[in-house]
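Sample entry was shown:

___
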Amino acid sequence: MKLISALLALTLVSGVTQLAVAQGEPAQLATATAQAKQTMGLIVYPAGGQTPEQQARDEQACHGWAQQQTGPVADAPSADSAAQAGKAKADSATQGAGIKGAAGGAAGGALVGAIAGDAGRGAGIGALTGTLRARRAKREAEKQAEQQARAQAQAQGSQQASTFRKAMVACLEGRGYTVQ
């Protein structure tokens, strides 16, 4: 059954693209409509006896209407741009962490060094240790912010795609098609 549905969808997509080119309409619009249907997994049946030509026009019109209602799905922020934004946010939040870590480490190292008899050496070791800890903490914060930003972008893109699909289905059903 899935194979038959896939073949039917492939035939329909091929027919829509050829029809749009034959009628002189921009092939890009037909391709975008066919790709959107395929991506969303829409199967459209002409329940009202619409011709293939009418179905192609209706699908293109509904695709355009859905974009007007929801905005183009392609405008959703990409996961990479969201990750970069998350990294930039983490950078600004952890700016100066190395210096603060070095200062804290130096103070602690000086105390330990004073007890051991060499406060200067203890401060140097403490500063190095504090800097390394702060850098590690900064990397972890950047990694976590990047993961959160990617997840948020993915959720937003999924929500927008879902809303677009609902708009497309509503339009097609309003024009007398059965949509699965």
